[in-house]
Amino acid sequence: MSSDALRIESPGKRVPLLGNEAIARGAIEAGVSVVSCYPGTPSSEISDALASLSKEFDFYMEYSANEKVALEVAAGAAMAGGKGLAIMKHVGLNVASDAFFTLAYTGVSGSLVIVVCDDPFMYSSQTEQDTRLIARAAHVPLLDPSDPNEARKMIKEAFNISERFGTPVMLRPTTRVCHTTTLIEPGELPKGRKTKLHWDSKRDWYQQYASVPAISRNNRLKLIHRTAEIAKLFEEIGFNELRGQASETGILTSGISYNYVCEAIEIMGLRASILKIGTSFPLPKRKMGKFLETIKRLIVVEEGEPYLEEYVKSIALDANPSVKVYGKENGFLPEPYDYDVPTVIKGISKACGVKPPMDYEDLERRAAAAKKLAPNRPPTFCAGCPHTATFYALRRATKGKAALSGDIGCYGLGFLPPFKGIDSIICMGASLGIASGLQYVIEEPVVAIIGDSTFFHAGLSPLASAIYNRANFTLLILDNSATAMTGFQPNPSTKKHESDDSVAPISIEAVVKGMGAEFVRIVNPFQLDATIETLKAAISFRGVSVVISRQLCVFIMMRNLKMAGKRPESYRIDTELCDGCFLCTKRLGCPAIIQQDKAAQILSETCVGCGVCSQICPGHAIVKAEDR
Amino acid sequence: MDELNIMIVGVGGQGALTLANIMANVANQMDINTVIGEVHGMSQRGGSVFVHLRMGIKVCSPIIPLGRSDVIVGLEFSEPLRYLDFLSKDGSIIVSRTRIIPPLVWAGAAKYPDESAIIEQYKLFSRNLYLIDSLQIANSAGNGLASNIVILGFLASKVNLPFKKDDILHSLESLVPAPILEVNKKAFELGWQEGKRN
């Protein structure tokens, strides 16, 4: 909620914190020395909170160009004995996984904690992948917090486990833990300053860290031994708790679902014993087995893959083969999406053969008509967003005949009407590789569309590949000097802070020219005609042509204006000249322009004066508000 | 208090989270257990948003179970349509008459429903429906952006909250920046009075 609450000294006092802030607080309490991240919902507020506190609590903090770099930075610090923390969203771990799998083998000398935020229901993601399965594949211990307070405790314990066993440790909060605000009890803050460590050059570091086959074979054995030792610890650790009341009905759950289970059995008035798992890898198999011995039926409540379910079924073969297991695999609980209390009540009711306390199907049926009536309201470009102008120009330049390979960022919304300016969005940086593949097989022109932060994240290698392989497509880089979607974190194309000139942004045009691109043009998308002509020329160029559409994110532009005590010069519609063709509303989708009966109208408090609409109005009816 | 659930819905940028934070701030000072479930990221840019505010000792999950919200607060006229199944049998709907037309409507890819059709649905789910001209009232307080605070005042006068009007005003003082505090206090007061009249 505020950095004051994050800084609070007095342990024992309860303060409201967002789950992600509680994780940041826990990392500070653990004495973290290096934090690195690439932002991504639902993880972004962890690093945002830490960025604001790094000086005060004496740790180094960087926004890395991508998650792989972030993990390597934190790992480097941990190799030397520091406390490294890397933060990312679940799909970020895919980017980092090359380093991740090997770091599990080498281990670390200090401590390395990786926070990976999963996003069930894909509130802001392209997939719903379950990081528990990756932890198992890599043999990296994983802690699964059920609420913000537990997340704070777990990240501290993660550093302890990492240091004690010399292994990377993961914390996996999900969206509903990250974005829940509740009262938490902070612990003690560390005292004193950190001193520089020493790299002992006489030590044979390579025997641990040089991952050549002979050394990795040795590390592989150590990894098995280490995992077994940690499994012993996890049989005893407090995060795996037996709750509820003794009953023939057992519920196995973890993470946020634990809260849904507690509330569900309270509402149902059901007697059940609950085993809450906090250490998803390695699992406390003995404890799970003992739990199975006490029950006749088991309901497994977990979001994501049937991970606990598969494990517990194999444990039951020895511990209690007669126990009946209800979960995702036999359809008692849904496999996709996030859960809530009614979903859990429905599953438990069905498994126990009781009537749910409320007829949810009837409720949902009755609500369906209202939901259908609600207007479709996806997120939109802000009024004055430069992407609106760029996508308008792109549509004019291609005349709707081109393959449009998109990427991840605000501009991804360009797929929506009225632009329909993006055909595919796969993952960070994919626009270029996909464009390369498309141009080999289709006749139509191909345009790859990527933002500045995403370009530095994962666009450099595929651009080198495309130029080297003589691909033929247009690369349209939407440079708004911002990582806007996640909350304006710095990236290599921006300053570190608005007021900080110590680091010069890396020039995108210098990079693409350095790679050998021959057609490189920079346009201001607010000058529509010039932008359209440049795009046309780029598309007809044979080879990789690059157009950089450069205009500051309107959010930052407005913030700067506000700080200077200024207001934007808005536009208005001259109702005598407006003939009601509504090209402005139909072609731009700007939230500042609405349709009245006979004429369009500009909402003066929403308009920021980009002037794009005035350039497309055939009747010249859109004029600056003060030109009367 | 056992459990009080308030769902605040609207369009990104309308200040749904601010409302939840102001009320949670009061509750926290009285050591009432509070949980706020929010959405971040994609949905913030002009999309549909919801915030779940839950108070009381029985609350553990950040999401209000279907059929258990005591109030749905709509900062935009049509937005509660998406969430009516959350409302409890005796629950109230407090909704602004402010309409925000999604730009998709102009592109012919969405339709904004008629007032009568919206109200008909609300009435199917609630006997306690309150419509409020929050923008007009906020403008008369001095700033249309304080619409959400007008609705907070209205809510405070209509719903049995576990804290008093003055407690909320104190919370406003600690959370709202000084230059816009007076406007917000006035907006709250006007919303309160509107609730008392209604």
Structural class of chain B: alpha/beta
- Helix/strand-derived class of chain A? alpha/beta
Largest protein interface, residues of each chain? A-B, 64 and 57 residues
Q: What integer value in Å does the Rg of chain A equal?
A: 27 Å
- Secondary structure: helix percent of chain A: 40-55%
Q: What is the molecular shape of chain A?
A: globular
> Helix segment count of chain B?
6
H and E order of chain B:
EHEEEEHEHHHH
DSSP summary: helix tally of chain A: 24
Number of DSSP strand runs of chain A: 23
Mean pLDDT of chain B: 94
The low-confidence parts of chain A are: none
Poorly predicted runs of 5 or more residues of chain B: none
Q: Within the largest sheet of chain A, what's the order of strands?
A: 3-2-4-5-7-6-12
What integer is the average pLDDT of chain A?
A: 96
Helix content of chain B: 25-40%
Give an overview of the whole structure:
The complex is a heterodimer of chains A (628) and B (198). By secondary structure, chain A is of the alpha/beta class. In chain A, 40% of the residues lie in helices and 16% in strands. Chain A is built from 24 helices and 23 strands. A seven-stranded mixed sheet of chain A has the order 3-2-4-5-7-6-12, sandwiched between helices. Chain A has a five-stranded mixed sheet with strand order 9-11-10-13-14, with helices on both faces. In chain A, strands 15-16-17-19-18 form a five-stranded parallel sheet, sandwiched between helices. In chain A, helix 5 links the parallel strand 4 and strand 5. In chain A, helix 2 packs across helix 3, helix 12 packs across helix 13 and helix 16 packs across helix 21. Chain A is globular and about 80 Å long. In chain A, 53% of the residues are buried. The model of chain A has no long low-confidence stretch (mean pLDDT 96). The model of chain B has no long low-confidence stretch (mean pLDDT 94). The two termini of chain B are 27 Å apart. In chain B, helix 2 links the parallel strand 5 and strand 6. By secondary structure, chain B is an alpha/beta fold. Chain B has a six-stranded mixed sheet, sandwiched between helices. Chains A and B meet through strand 8, helix 11, helix 14, helix 15 and strand 21 of A and helix 1, strand 2 and helix 2 of B.
